[in-house]
Protein 1
Amino acid sequence: MEQFFHLREHGTSVRKEIIAGLTTFLAMAYILAVNPSILGNVMNAGGVFVATALTSALATFIMGLWANYPIALSAGMGLNAYFAFTVCLGELGGDPGAFRVCLTAVFVEGVVFLLLSLFKFREKIINAIPSNLKYGISAGIGLFIALIGLSGAGITVSDEATLVNLGSFRSAPMVLALVGFLIILILVHRNIPGAVLIGILVTWFLGMGAQSVGWYDGPSVFPDFSAGLQLSGIKETAFQLDFRWAATHIAEFIAITFSFLFVDLFDTVGTVVGVADKAGLLDENGELPRVGRVFMADAVGTTVGACLGTSTVTSFVESSTGVAAGGRTGLASVTTGFLFLASLFLSPVFLAIPSFATAPALIYVGMLMVASAKKIHFEGEVSEVAGAYMALLIMPMTYSIANGIMLGVITWVVLKVFTGRIRDVNPVMWIVFALFALRIVSLILS
């Protein structure tokens, strides 16, 4: 373990890494319930569950064993909704075979990413991002994942008058999530190992008590084995690609594929930067060593996932919970990968953990990641400050990592041009700027 993962070099231990891997898994286990729920609108939900678990394990193993980073991967949120509702039920009119078109687009996207990773183009992108912008991205992701936790527990709710408002203190999920957050903070203050994981489990157990006395009346938080294991659905989703449709609708297929590729590319970049910065894995130049291997993990995961029957695979911001629990090496990812495999047989247990129980961990990690904002040189040149600020601001406000990076980069490049610092813009940033400009044009024309 020591020789393979270099644990001492990263100031960690086997125990810390295992706790971190378990913490990350608990924070993102919701995807095993949410992804089948979303994609189940257009394809076999049981097959999606199996495909999601297997693909997540494979991609996370590659991340841990080859890249040696504590970053877990699974089917990306937002991309699965685009798959089911925008394309299958929208653009393709709810055709029963529409999911095959989307799986084909995801497969092609994965192959493109494999090629881009081999030629290190994605690596050049992440290493070409200015340090100030990276810190803005990291802080923005902190606010973003905190917002995920807040909304998942009902602490923040939508409001027609004020857009967003505070939830009700009569709500068990809201109160329990706030209590869980305080528990984590108290445990951290007392230097209790595994504080984040303990906070999740205590909140979950409190939720069981709340449901038992009738205070919480939502979906059951108790494990239910009565339905048994349902793994045969994979037959309905595996190897269902439809290249025939793609060949006869080339322009439409390219547009669908580009949308998957675009969002995944920059979601992954943003997540990797944020998690790596919080874990102290960036080097003295603000660059991430072995980042090409990181991108190869999600490229392989996306390609294999499409073959098995799930949407685009990407790095998860919830990996930050494992980093907060002490994870610094790929051993944490390997642990998470094994738990994804175990979920195939213990899914009733893992899926019973409600979002309000993982919310405290997300809110806590968001607090830690926002600290990256103090590294932003706010007294510096305006393009550097504004670019970082836009990335930090837009991510939580639009509920999108990709949107934050897009407006952050565009702001940075435009200001460099109009402040006489065009020479600061390297070729890779020009390419990224052009891609974002095309994205904006496509949004205008859509």
Protein 2
Amino acid sequence: MKPIWIVDDDQSIRWVLEKTLARENLSCKTFGNVNEAILALESESPQVLVSDIRMPGGATSNAGLELLSAAKNKYPGLPVIVMTAFSDLESAVASFQGGAFEYLPKPFDVDQAVDLIRRAVDESLRESAYEEQAESTPEILGHAPAMQDVFRAIGRLSQSNVTVLITGESGSGKELVARALHKHSPRAASPFIALNTAAIPKDLLESELFGHERGAFTGAQSMRRGRFEQAEGGTLFLDEIGDMPSELQTRLLRVLSDGHFYRVGGHNPLRANVRVIAATHQDLETQVTAGVFREDLYHRLNVIRLRLPALRERSEDIPVLTRSFLQKSAKDLGVEPKRVSEAAMQLLTTLPFPGNVRQLENLCHWLTVMAPAQVIEVKDLPPEMRGVESARKVGTRPVTRIGAAFNDATLRPEERAGSASEWQDLLEATAARMLSDGKGEIMDLLSRQFESSVIRIALRHTGGRRIEAAQRLGIGRNTITRKIQELGLDQVEPEP
């Protein structure tokens, strides 16, 4: 293990920490000013860096922040603990914005400092292992036996052009498997074209697949190449194939049968040199039995079938997926990658994740934005996820939506108090998701939901008596009348 660096212009601090760490069998190297430490970073790196903020020798009075910046630029995964006698908000904020692992105000308890340093050392060792693993990270992550079966199948199909049907729940990563099949096939140098058949309106899907000639329909002012032509020589990935309209199923079957198709409005057959990979979250056998999906097309697609396991079936992959997604989110946002504490990771591995890998990826993006510190703790997870664990422990259902604490009139008084304490966390989580989804008018929408919930429960409590409800809420009689009309609350049932 590399030594721990202590950077402080106070010799007594350096001496105390050096002796204490030596007793803990932790090697240590000390520096009396920032310039020495920055110079040493050019040729070596510590396991953990512990630095004062306000020291002489830098361009500013906060020379420790300059050292923090230099260390993070050189070694992004290095845990840095900053300490200062000036325990002000500005220094703390600047430290965490610079990527500090933790903030230690002086004077500090030596045992507390050692515990913090040990935690940083453990984090550093884990981070080193993650980085080594990331160097050989494939395009699809997974150590679970079910994923190893998928990897073996991709390997066996690497020299084949056979049609493949990928099944699995939504968000399980079917397109990633399709891309891997393309990447490791003889067609890798040609295009990979993906089309979600469920996302295209029925009237436009035929043109999207096969293209159209000029004048084929109103608005077709020029010839347009479809996805089959765009994927010439390569791979066409048709996602959610179970949602394809029956008339287009017939046209797709013909292409798979004889390798020819016509543009919409066209009369000349075009050759399709394309490998088709299809995917669905639906049970195609059931759809065939119900007459919704063509049986002959099903057999054409179902030459080789790959089933992707749900994330709950491969919970051992959650840690490596989480780290990968946190790295990706940090890179996309241009920030320092965050890490997950052991306790938080243990909780994540117990969650069902009905949205599968996609839900986990969205969670990691949310945590990159919303978690206050570099190390994500259990308390930093969205309230609804913490609620799942709480519900398991006490045998109750978690509160999972805004307004639940107000709308559930069946709660006992002591339960109401506990639920109401969660509504701000729920509100923040909902607002964060809406912002991530790009929704607009969020303030108006959430304000209406809040007002509707509060006024509804007040009217139930007062038996529908508006004046009394207005008095209890601290608003005017005219205000509550107007709000009831605006929010459509005229038919609120009184509380039993």
Protein 3
Amino acid sequence: MANLLIADALTKRYEIGSVPVEALCGVDFVLQQGEFVAIMGPSGSGKSTFLHLLGGLDVPSSGEVIFDGMHLTHLSDTQLAILRRRRFGFIFQFFNLLPTLTAAENVGLPLLIDSGRMQDKAGRIAELLDLTGLGNRAGHYPDQLSGGEQQRVAIARAMMLHPAIIFADEPTGNLDAASGEAILRLLRSACDMQGQTVLMVTHNPGAAAVADRIVLLRDGLIESDQQSRGVHQK
């Protein structure tokens, strides 16, 4: 598999009052195309900071993030926004759906943001809703959907523009056990059946077990990076 995303000596410092805090301390990391990698670690270990830096949602204090040969720190704000919009998909713990849009409209939202028209991609929207088991819920609004259904809409939205990487930040953290397992099966299937690359932050060892690799962060450093011991076999 080809190297798709590289972190080179990645560091992030914050100022809390007059006290500097190092969230990441020179982390090196490689994500290969088609991999499913879980990032774990205790609260304050830097895992969400790490995900945000890799996804171009934040900028490092030092070091580099290199995606598909491009150095993210060399991109303008506009170029970075276009990269995030067209090449990355994001899934968050609290869904972030627009309440005034239907499930289908939420899935197609990346098209509108990218100056496209939902009508031109109605087939793609329907395909993703079917893939996520929501074909019969296309016209429902978020408040008419369960938490698990809303997260499936968020996954379909993240996949809308065929992203190179899906970044998932605690995607099952706000769900009951059954809904969380369904979301993990969906992400695993996207990786296995469609070659989707997935980078997921989770605090749950059971969720991490569906990944190919588990990266453990502690105190801003990678403590271990090893193959998952879960039941999954590629």
